[in-house]
Amino acid sequence: MAKATAAQLATWSAQAGFTGQDQATAIAVALAAGGNPDAPQGAFGLGGGGGGQAQAQAAFAQWKAQQWAAFPTHQTGSWAFYLPVALGSVVAAPAGGGNPFDPQTQAELKSGLSNLAGQAKDAVNVVPERVGQIAGFLTNPRTWMRYVKIVTGLVLVGLAAASLTKSTIIDPIIGGANQAGERVAEAAVLAKATR
Fold this sequence. Notes:
By secondary structure, the chain is an all-alpha fold. It folds into 2 domains: 6-101, no CATH class; 140-193. The protein contains 7 helices and no strands. Helix 1 packs across helix 2 (20-33), helix 1 (6-16) packs across helix 3 (52-66) and helix 5 (83-92) packs antiparallel against helix 6. The radius of gyration is 37 Å and the shape is elongated.
């Protein structure tokens, strides 16, 4: 058997005992694992053996024992990318197929999925616009002049700070040290003369 569809995973997981959000999570975990019962990792990422339904039942038993900690794709977080598809497959499942959501929750999920699809479409449409804006900004000669002015200003501020530091901090310290040295020398000369 090849990779299972979300609808097949929804049926297997419902018949195995998963319900509600846990059923959607199980489907997302399986989709992230590849959803192929014949693969070495199996449909749910816990190892192969048996058909898809048998693996769903084994996954349910493992989940009952350890919750989601036993599932590699849940630990890595990759399952979350498949959650919208998983929720959609649970909502789309026929009433006799184990759909655990009441009609109001189904409507909310459908609305949420529709909003998510709209946001994804909007995000994809924004990318070329943003790339165009960035390209326009980088190819604008005024942009580079601004950078030159900023860098020049920073260099001048640095030079001014260094100049102020020398004239306001270093020079007075050196001058004070010189005066102190001269006084010590004068005191030494006086002391020698009075002996």
